[in-house]
Amino acid sequence: MIAAALQTPLSLVRSPKTEQEPIPVRHMKFEFDAKSVDDKFLLNTELASAYFEALSIFLTFGEDLVIDTARYHRQFVDDPVLKQRVTSLIGQEAVHSKAHNEWNDMLQLNRFPVSIYRFLAQQVFDYGFKQLPNPMQLSLMAGIEHFTAVMAEFFMKHEDMFFSTDDEKQRALWMWHMLEESEHKDIAYDVFQELSGSYPLRIAGFAMAFGTILGLIPLATSVIPFYRRPRNLISPAFWKDAKRSVGVLFGKKDGVYGSTIGHVLDYLRRDFHPNDHDTSEYLEYYKETLLHPETGLLTPYLVKETVPPLRK
Ligand SMILES: [Fe+2]
Ligand SMILES: [Fe+2]
C-alpha cells in the first residue's frame, strides 16, 4: 500500500512556479445511479458516511464561491503562470461542483434531506460569505482550500478507506476529487499571498472555514439518522455506529480530522505554505493508478482533459 511504500515526506523544498507542470481540467461523466448508492460508504459507518454526504452538498457552495472569487481576482494577478494555474483551479472546481451536484441529486433519492441542506447552505453563503468584502472572500477561499488539501492528503495516505464498499462510482468521485484538491492545493494560497499577504486576514478566513467544516456540517449531519429512522434514538445499533463514526472522523490516531489537526492548525504558522506538506509522490502514484489508460479507476469516467493556455 502507498502509505507504507512512501516515507510521508515533509519536504520544505518549494518548486518555483515556472517549474510546475500545468494543471489539467478533467471533464468527467459518472452517470450516477440512485440504486447503487451506499450510504455506509465510509468503513461501513452510517454517521461518518452521512458527514461526507452533507459535506458533498456544502462543498458545491464552497466550490462556487472559490470559482467566483478566483475569477474576480485573476485579473489582478501579474504572474502568467499563476494566472494559468488560477484558470485550472476554476476549471477543476467547476467540474467538481457539477459532478457533486449530480451526486447530491442521487442522495435525494436515497433518504438524504438534500433540499433542506441545500437551503441551509444557500442561506449561509448568500447572506453570509457572499456578503463579505473581496479580500475576506479571498482569504476564505484560501481557508477552504486548506481544508480540502488536508482531507486530500489524509485520504491519499489511507487508500484502503475507499475500498470497504462496492459503490464504485462514489469511490471514483471521491478519489478523483482527492487527487485534484491535492493537485491545486497551493493556488488559492498563492493568490492570497500575492494580492494580500495579511496574516490576520488569512487567519480570519481560516476561522470561517474551520467553523463551517468542523462545526456547522457535523452539527447538520447529527440529525440525519433520526431523519431517516426516528426510532434510531433508542436503537443500540445506532449508538454503536455513532461511536465508530466519531472515531472515523475525530479519532486521534487515525480519524480524518483527529489525526490531522496538527496539519489543520499548521496554517496558523506565519510562514506556512501548502507545499510544506509535500504530496508530490502521492500525486504521482494516484495519477498513475487512477488515470492509467487501461486500468485506471477513473478512466471509464474521463471524457477529456484540457490545459488552459499560458497567456503572457
Ligand atoms: Fe473541489
Ligand atoms: Fe479545491
What do these coordinates show?
This protein is an all-alpha fold and 312 residues long. The protein has one domain (45-306). Helix content is 60%, strand content 3%. The protein is built from 12 helices and 2 strands; from the N terminus they run αβαααααααααααβ. The protein has a two-stranded antiparallel ribbon. α5 crosses α6 (168-183). The longest helix has 29 residues, at 46-74. Mean pLDDT is 91; it is low at 1-18. One fe (ii) ion is lined by residues 93, 145, 148, 181, 184. One fe (ii) ion binds at residues 93, 145, 148, 181, 184.
For the largest beta-sheet, the strand count, sense and barrel status come to: 2 strands, antiparallel
The end-to-end distance, rounded to whole angstroms, is: 42 Å
Evaluate the radius of gyration: 19 Å
Q: Within the largest sheet, what's the order of strands?
A: 1-2
Described by its quaternary structure, the protein is: single chain
Strand content: under 5%
Ligand roster: fe (ii) ion
Helical/strand content category: mainly alpha
Query: Outline, from the CA principal axes?
Result: globular
Number of strands: 2
